[in-house]
Amino acid sequence: MPKRTDIKTIMIVGAGPIIIGQACEFDYSGTQAVKALKDEGYRVVLVNSNPATIMTDPEFADATYIEPITPEMVTKILEAERPDAILPTMGGQTALNTCLTLDRDGTFERLGIEMIGARADVIDKAEDRLQFREAMSKIGLESPRSMQVNNREDAATALDMVRLPAIIRPSFTLGGQGGGIAYNREEFFEIVMGGIDASPVSEVLVEESVLGWKEYEMEVVRDKADNCIIICAIENIDPMGVHTGDSITVAPALTLTDKEYQIMRDASIACLREIGVETGGSNVQFAINPKDGRMVVIEMNPRVSRSSALASKATGFPIAKIAAKLAVGYTLDELTNEITGTTPASFEPTIDYVVTKMPRFTFEKFPGTDATLTTSMKSVGEVMSIGRTFAESLQKAYRSMETGLTGLNEVTIPGAHSAKGIDEDAVFAALGQPTPDRLLNIAQAFRLGISADDIQRVTHFDPWFLNQISAIVQAETHVIEAGLPENFDSLMRLKRMGFSDARLAELSDRTEADVAALRDKLDLHPVFKRIDTCAAEFPSQTPYMYSAYEGDSSQLGECEAEPSDREKIMILGGGPNRIGQGIEFDYCCVHAVFALEEAGYETIMVNCNPETVSTDYDTSDRLYFEPLTAEDVIEICKLEQTKGTLKGVIVQFGGQTPLKLAHALEAAGIPILGTSPDAIDLAEDRKRFQKLIQDLGLRQPENAIATSAEEALAAAEELGFPILIRPSYVLGGRAMELVHEMEALTRYINEAVRVSGTSPVLLDRYLQDAIEVDVDALCDREGNVHVAGIMEHIEEAGIHSGDSACSLPPYSLSEPVLAEIRRQTEVLARALKVLGLMNVQYAVKDEEVYLIEVNPRASRTVPFVAKATGVPIAKVAARLMAGEMLADFDLQDHSIPPGHVAVKEAVFPFARFPGVDTLLGPEMKSTGEVMGLDRDFGHAFAKSQLGSGTVVPVEGRVFISVRERDKAAMVEMSRGLVEMGFEIVATSGTARHLADNGIPVDTINKVLEGRPHIVDAMQNGEIQLVFNTTEGVRSIADSYSLRRTALNQRIPYYTTVAGARAAVASIGAMRSGALEVAPLQSYFSIDF
Prior knowledge:
Layout lengths: L8 E5 L11 H15 L3 E5 L15 E3 L5 H11 L3 E3 L4 H13 L2 H5 L2 E2 L4 H8 L1 H10 L7 E4 L2 H11 L3 E5 L9 E3 L2 H14 L5 E5 L5 E9 L5 E9 L12 E3 L6 H18 L4 E9 L6 E7 L4 H10 L3 H9 L26 E7 L20 E7 L2 H11 L16 E2 L2 E2 L1 H8 L6 H10 L4 H8 L3 H20 L5 H9 L4 H8 L3 H11 L4 E4 L13 E5 L18 E6 L10 H16 L3 E6 L14 E4 L4 H11 L4 E6 L5 H4 L2 H6 L4 E2 L3 H8 L1 H11 L6 E4 L2 H11 L3 E5 L9 E3 L2 H10 L9 E5 L5 E9 L5 E12 L9 E3 L6 H17 L4 E10 L2 E8 L6 H8 L3 H9 L19 E7 L20 E7 L2 H11 L9 E5 L5 H13 L3 E4 L1 H9 L5 E2 L10 H6 L5 E4 L4 H6 L1 H9 L4 E2 L2 H15 L17
Parallel strand pairs: 1-2, 1-4, 2-3, 4-5, 20-23, 21-22, 21-24, 22-23, 24-25, 37-38, 37-40, 38-39, 40-41
Antiparallel strand pairs: 6-9, 7-8, 7-9, 10-11, 10-13, 11-12, 12-15, 13-14, 15-16, 17-18, 19-20, 26-29, 27-28, 27-29, 30-31, 30-33, 31-32, 32-35, 33-34, 35-36
Helix pairs in contact: 1-11, 5-6, 7-8, 14-16, 15-16, 18-19, 20-30, 26-27, 31-37, 32-37
């Protein structure tokens, strides 16, 4: 049936900030949905609080609301826009839960708005664990034995029924948050009560354990006419017990017989029909007992999910785009498959290659966290790789991860080597733990001589996968013993198994350059295949490619790349999402593509992240889904140079990932666009940079460079504490620390970094109570500079800029200071010969400007500045790199936008890591960000807090406990809070100071002073807001339980004076009247 004409305006709800379990795959699906509905002539309204998304660019939707995704704020937008329909399936669990709330409270009915894509009763049936189980029983599909639990008494009953170990799954949560596996009674009740708290409907399902079973996912699409197709079957290499987002997965399913696959296919479609998913993509998860073949349904997502993004990229089938069109009435047979251009969308995709998805973890950011994987998701990103064989695909995935791996590298299993030889028990202990390195541990166990049967018994991995890993290890052993083969066919055999040049060099004790030279001599290069959705049954119109080694000396593999004869520019993406390098860099890469296409260039994207807009087949002219290593990128460049002109490669937009490749690309004779690699190196190399600063007459905090542990300790003695210490060449403040005493410095040098002549560390005298400032600027080839945005951090200097809230325009800096910041930025840009984007961080103390660091590349603030000022600075930067001038663009000074304030706030994953301290420091810990946009600072800050999930209280009790030097600042704030009707409670020292200044205050015990103390009061719901600043190791340790309780009880908590001041301003704004909403387009007159 053709599209509906009775609806004119459709609202799409986004997913909000990037958090664990809900990453940038929803920017990908949301962007596709907005484009698809606009193409059909609908007016599209979008709400999303995340400024780092492509979908929130003002040219995509007709009205873009960067507002908190809460039922109250979404209601205001609905009242203002009056859409005919709302699409809740593109914004993850956030969008589903928000729309369900609005359906239940009658908002949709009152405003005459229809939910399309999934009705409320369908979402309920799929997401409510009990309803889902009953629905499955009705159609003869088995579920694990389970019981719904809402309190401790029910939990005890459930435990008797399912027995231990038990799996706890909270209803309506994301990425399994709040869930887990319980092996004993104490653990069971702890996880159940935590899960009830995490569930928005206070409900968990206690389920019989299916640990060790095989896990599969089916990605299914259905239309109104009941046409159902399977997009792909995904197999988890990890057995049940590890969240599917944390599992290494493959597509197609590799260990199912055809009969088993058909049974699962039929079950998936029956499941969709019974739940009532009328249109769009869904994901159904199954477990199969390998002993007897018993199959059970685990759960279903009645929306576009993380797996949908993976299935879309794995097959080339654009699930989100098709789902959006099905939601407005089309059927699958009416839509064309854009990859082939000839087949209908009802044609089930087929894949003739192997796709591997590998999760990326950042446990190193959270010291003290247990790195064991459970049913609660902990990974922050993922890579996808494609090969002709499982071995090739797996090894490409490992080298895509950017964790220093070149393949299945050797790892150390603690205690494996004893005086008597191999200690098998130590090996089994390591294999029995599901950790991020589990596959590497399996490979190591094979190297240590452990049998496949023993490994299977302990890990429950399917024997087929174990045999594949064993074959890779055997091939490695042959290279170690016999050396690198010098003939074409023997080397080709190794390359077909996915061995990188770097890995072969390690195994044969040669250099990577030796292996590359040997391949050149033998003329042994990869061929490139197209992702065509149909296993080459029809020709592909879309250049979406992956590399493979194929054929032998008698018959080489066929290359399907067909490079064009146009002038082209290649953009290197950012690889896997991780803390410190996230969606902001993908945003910059996509903008570069759009800008260069507008300028008439052919654009080529190279990236390996399946969640992103950059790896959508219709973003760039040509897409290579490949690891971002020198070997892989150089092979693509050489291929593209065979026809047309490769004008250059852009390495500035993908964060640290492509920057690391700049020297290798330059050495291979490949032109780099933008700032020269040498200038980037100058800014990163602490010694060279320091000399430049002295030559320019700019000020830095007192500092020293140390190339040995002795030098570092001596420098600290001279500088005095506290000291900020950091290594060279890092992103996201990796291994950066604020140390307060010599003992902590000694520990840092011994444990955190290897200090050497080639990797020195920088010690900075920490500027106490300084204001940190972030500046983004553009520079062209003639040295003309445009300051695009000046952001004032709300947290003080010393907290990583990615974790600090910031305001644009600055809210407390004087005009002379801003003028000096502009001057220094221009001087630096010219001195570094920046071409394109540059980010500078300053600290301001007593009206003096100190330079902290310069990054002559795109930074994570670029999307925020673009949204706050209305200037698409990443697009302009790309055009500058291609040779245009700043004068070609109409860039007035938008760095201080007229009439509005934008506040960026960071979002943290602490709730997923029990036991981790929430105190912020110089190492970045946030996973994402939100933006608050309004006419003044107080309202904008309030919106940023709501968007990040923080409650802004308008009444109640405020607890204040601050260090000595902050007490004076608290007097004014406390007075303001009392005038607004709040009660103040404080610890003895702070209370005395406040009382002496005429503030009514109650005294409460610190935790160490005995009970009842402040944590008791917080747990009893007596405290609505906390201001707590600390200093020194002892004080920080003493107040840990306070911070953790605030997190668990969801009490807003501010650990800096500036943060507390901003909170008071936002409370004042909230009390002065309700927050208003306005589309982004109403703030600017500029086109992106």
